[in-house]
Amino acid sequence: MTPAPTDVPQRRGASHDEEQGQDRDAVISVRGLWKVFGPKADRVPKSSELCGLGRRELMERTGCTAAVRDVRFDVAPGEVFVVMGLSGSGKSTLVRCLTRLVEPTAGEVVLEGEDIRTADARRLRELRRNRFSMVFQHFGLLPHRRVVDNVAYGLEIRGMGRAERVKRALEVVELVGLAGYENSYPDQLSGGMQQRVGLARALAGDPGILFFDEPFSALDPLIRRDMQNEVIRLHREVGKTMVFITHDLSEALKLGDRILIMRDGRTVQCGTGDELVGAPADDYVREFVKDVPRADVLTLRWIMRDPRPDDALDGPELGPGVVVREATRAVLAAEKPVRVVEEGRLLGVVGDEEILAVVAGGEGGA
Ligand SMILES: Nc1ncnc2c1ncn2[C@@H]1O[C@H](COP(=O)(O)OP(=O)(O)OP(=O)(O)O)[C@@H](O)[C@H]1O
């Protein structure tokens, strides 16, 4: 969802190597994060022996569950970062650790430059009121308050005067497409509309970071799609940094600039959608992505090849981040191979063969 320089959909490249050091511009920076539930939980991250145990062994030996195990990542300003995994993989616990709704057992969490593990209760309250917002599956709307007052609720808690907060609430109500429903009560709205109120409430305080915990999983598929599009549109308009939990890969691919895949509390892979599909880290990820329409996710960088001596090198030019589906027409219409060029440098070429291998469901050179 990074704004693309052209009309052709592009995917962000691998600009955040997990192996590199701390990203100084990161809005969220997580290092060595653990959450262990159970007795004497903090001994687990400290012991290399206990750290190495699987879920069942750890439970048998210590009575503990390690819901998050040694997770690290950085989220860039304005990025939509998705945490994905099957039920029980630790997604909710991980994201709750970021705002200390769940207290981390070990590790470092720095949000907008502030080490939130050292924040006292008062500072935490302040941060939750002013800097972060959460959108949950259960909207948590106040049933006896009208839409506008639900949206203004957080502003009221901050001490904002009535006229100012109503003005701000009406702006965000409009932003999320609920103009005309300001005076309705939550039970007069459909599930999708209630979720829009939840979104508006989260946006009202102009937070630095928005956290979404499976917000759309209870909605029926069509409304869910609407809401996903809504998040994409809102992200374009307001450009907020977002952390989004889902167990649905297509949702992750649609919304995420990058996706962190969790299994048993650990990071299995963290990358862009095309990286996950083009180079899955292991069989678990491969299994996850096997039904993804590759042409919709892979970009030309994944299917280009080196030019052969007989290739004409004066064909049309496209960037390596162009999605295969979007490049198909141009490549098939061209008489000569399409040149994949980045900053004036020829990276490779793509011809009919490479395109058809992906569009027809082949391996696509990954
Ligand atoms: N308060 C708790 N006490 C003990 N164990 C917990 C607690 N909360 C979570 N767990 C365990 O931690 C692991 C991760 O749970 P978590 O809810 O974070 O996973 P999830 O990926 O978000 O799952 P789901 O998609 O079902 O919500 C699970 O084994 C869960 O049973």
Automatic annotation (TrEMBL):
Key words of the record: ATP-binding, CBS domain, Nucleotide-binding, Transport
Region listing for Disordered, in residue ranges: 1-23
Keyword Signal: no
All copies of domain ABC transporter, residue ranges: 53-289
Superkingdom of the organism of origin: Bacteria
One BP annotation, GO: response to osmotic stress
Biased composition (Basic and acidic residues): 14-23
SMART domains in the cross-refs: AAA
PROSITE patterns given in the database record: ABC_TRANSPORTER_1, ABC_TRANSPORTER_2
Cellular component per GO, a single term: membrane
Name of a matching Pfam family: ABC_tran
GO molecular function: ATP binding; ATP hydrolysis activity
Family as reported in the entry's similarity comment: Belongs to the ABC transporter superfamily.
Protein name: Glycine betaine/proline transport system ATP-binding protein
Organism: Actinacidiphila glaucinigra
